[in-house]
Amino acid sequence: MLSHEKNRIIFDCHSDSYAWMSQRAWVEIDLEALSHNVRQLTKLLSPRTQLMAVVKADAYGHGAIVVAQTALKSGASWLGVATVPEGIQLREAGIEAPILILGATHTPEQIQAIAQWQLQPTLISPKQALVFSNTLEEINYDSPLPVHIKLDTGMSRLGTNWQEADEFVKLVQRLPYLTIKSIYSHLATADSPDPTVMKQQQQRFETAIAQIRALGIEPPCLHLANSAATLTEESLHYDMVRAGLVIYGLYPAVHLNSSIDLKPVMQVKARVTQVKIIAPGTGVSYSHQFVAQQELRLAVVGIGYADGIPRNLSNKMQVLIRGQRVPQIGNITMDQLMLDISALPEIQEGEVVTLLGKEGEEQISAEDWANQLNTISWEILCGFKHRLPRVTRVSG
Ligand SMILES: *Cc1c(COP(=O)(O)O)cnc(C)c1O
User: Fold this and answer.
1) Which of 42, 43, 223, 333 has the most CB within a 10 Å radius?
2) Which residues are catalytic?
3) Ligand 1 centre from 279 Cα, in Å?
């Protein structure tokens, strides 16, 4: 059934093979590429710098558990998630590495879950730090909870203003149920070729750290860099880098494309479900946005916007079949889309179509879609729905 495909398919533990074979569409995850990317990244880092694999949002749509396990085997030592349930999912899978929750947590229920599952929260304000301390006292938590101080140095998102960092750290230091594990901030413009704002943020971070040190407090771990900053320069690495996009094999910006060799981890595939010939003047799909100018051979493919193919790509995108680019025609529908395969009359029903990924010399990347849609590749990766089973694949 897969004789025309060179790549061996291995089913991951979450998708049973029968379900997969009958699938009209799926996401393929190349764990070898993921390992490669993580290893490339660790080569950039000095021995003192640890790598946090950011696996929030189900590892940017790749599948958090399998990505976390592979990243840890390949050189990452920390994991970053956005929410408490994302952290619990990893613990339930038996993952023991330290897990930082990058998002805000406030409620006693969240705090209890953090303590119970040994997750590590981000502290963003004195008020929230006191809620943590009080809640831990109420539940008689027996050892101090490792926490991470978040400073706002210019992103204007989570964190205490960098100018109040010393007061904040002094307060948390005093609270008996908390122990500071790291101090960090997040960069707003690390993917820009103009480093001015990033340098200003770094300067503010350094100033805040100097003020904290002036209190006689030595921060055990400092971190600032996301993917783009990690690729930009070593002075931004500190004790740890928090890498998301790059471990999935995409470059955060065009000017960073040659910094290291990355391999895209995700491919999106679907099958041709019907082939037909339509006469000149025939409209295709809802609203007949496409009308055949001459007789053409049309293929229906079993994937649509409910799977995460952006409808705004209608009549703009191309896909790969048999290593060739083929235009998509008509509006993309919820579960299906159409192709003009007139140039490839031998295409059969059941054949595999690559929507994102590589066939031979041809490649369509999340970056290509992002450019067409005026968005960023992060959003493209996160956009694929759970209706698409994730199957792991070994490249080669
Ligand atoms: C998502 C996130 C990252 C990772 O960003 P990438 O650009 O994907 O590397 C790092 N740090 C924080 C705080 C984040 O929220």
Assistant:
1) 223
2) 56, 286
3) 50
